[in-house]
Amino acid sequence: MPLSLDQLQEAFAATLVADEVPTQLSAALIESGEHLTARLTLYRRNVFGAWRQALAAAYPVVHALVGPECFSDVAHHYCRLHPSTSGDLNQFGARFAEVLATEPATATLPYLGDVAALEWAVHRLHHAADTPPVPRERIAALSPTQLLSSRFLLHPGCWWMASTHPLCSIWTAHQPDSTIELSSIAHKPEFALVTHRRWRVTVVPITSGDVIALDALKAGADMDRTISAALQGDPTFDFAKAFVRWLDCDVFVGVDDARRQ
Amino acid sequence: MISNFPNPGNDRAVARPLGVGIGLRAPHYEALLTQGCCIGWLEAHTENYFGEGGYDLYVLTTLRERHPISLHGVGLGLGSAKGYSPEHITKVAALVNRVEPALVSEHLCWGARDGAVFNELLPLPLTRETLHLVGERVDRLQNVLQRQVLIENITSYVHFRDEDFNEPEFLNALAAQTGCGILLDLNNLYVNQCNHGTSAAAVIDAIDPRHVGEIHLAGHRRIDGIVIDDHGAAVDDAVWQLYAHALQRCGQVPTLIEWDNQVPALDVLKTEAERAQHYYDRVDQHAAVA
Predict the structure, then answer these.
(1) How far apart are the CA of B106 and the nearest CA of chain A, in angstroms?
(2) Among A147, B57, B86, B192, which has the minimal tally of Cβ within 10 Å of its Cβ?
(3) How far apart are CA A242 and CA B117, in angstroms?
(4) Which of B120, B198, B229 should one mutate to test binding to chain A, selecting the residue with the greatest count of A CBs within 10 A?
(5) How far is B191 from B187, CA to CA, in rounded Å?
(6) What part of B 156-175 touches A (C-beta under 8 Å)?
(7) In whole angstroms, what is the distance from residue A142 CA to residue A259 CA?
(8) In terms of pTM, does the model score above 0.90?
(9) Residue B103: helix, strand or coil by DSSP?
(10) Helix intervals (H) in chain B
């Protein structure tokens, strides 16, 4: 009795994720012996190759930091833990940072998890909606009182992080036009903002005050409360500089003056 | 009737047939945007443009103003018994609405099982059960998109014992049943001939030429005694011969130069496309279809 399509695919799927060949599968195929082993190995290599390539495309800096062999090993481990769940490979690899942070093979590079988290934010932003920024005139027209009472809506793809490692410098050193030498980077905490402007994703160094402020803005605080929170956590926070930095990165996609409601 | 759905690219009455196109790949974005070049049409991998926005989608929607676009899906897995994704179809439909492509295509394969997706074109046993399943899926896809889709033959590195059809019989039946077209990949036929001995020319002769809506040409390589369709080289001479043969039978069918790995400079692709155009132009369209 021939297998149903469902049974055949169940057996085929099993051989793709394990190195064994279910007997129902080998009985259903014309190829046999070493020949069959070679052909199924080819499928396994193709499947893993596409996954590894997708990870390497999303995490080019991690790839450069650990080298191709180590990356391949970690990718293998990742694929077993979190196999692809979408026909769109751009969705694959969301939990790579988590796995890197616990991977013994990369334990000597403690910043890898943060680098991977940043790279995933960059990757996601590459395909995020092109929501236009709030026009500068709209912001310039706000009086200081209005500005303080306004809530600013952040671009949904914006991402920021307080890292205990020199996260921005490491990422920047690996960009094609970089002049930073990896060996010259000082070991200090850095704060990173990932955003995009006219489809170009950028990583911008920010301050710890920016991180507190962006967290507050995301939670829906108006600008007055946002500034207070930032100053409380980081007395050196310079709102004027930070605000210009955010505007230059097209961080805001909406603004509403609460008093007009 | 060949199809209930409109398909500009497959309509032989269109005054300007599509001719020869090339795959749209990221390394060529800048060159394609800045050069006003003479490429007939561009084929994009559907899933690469699933994002809500971003540079890739900007490039595609900009280029669609200058070139006819074909959307070629690699992730739907029409033959997956369990694990077929309605969300994937929704995304395809959204992109088709946005881009209004000249051609839409997918593969005769499966690729997912119970939520695990293999992102690979896996082979299907060509049985009545498979025809029934894939037929239903193609029907539904064409109904959602309100247009004809083309279904491509794949390479297969293993072969099933119990089958009810050979490949051309299956594709002809699928096309007759659903009104879909056939995307005939000549490199895949040649790779299957090398690996399994199935005569590529015999497959071409057995395919109903009225259903063929597109032809793919690509390169391959040989590793450890197996020929792999890696789309990483120039089109092989044997495949050019098959192309001449297919054009004789099918007439002037839109043809794509596919190059996915070790993508060369755009000029190399243009040279391949010019070579294909040379074959294409020599065909007497009316004689061939009749």
Answers:
(1) 12
(2) B86
(3) 43
(4) B120
(5) 6
(6) 157-162
(7) 12
(8) yes
(9) strand
(10) 29-34, 55-63, 86-99, 128-145, 167-178, 186-196, 200-206, 237-250, 266-282, 285-289
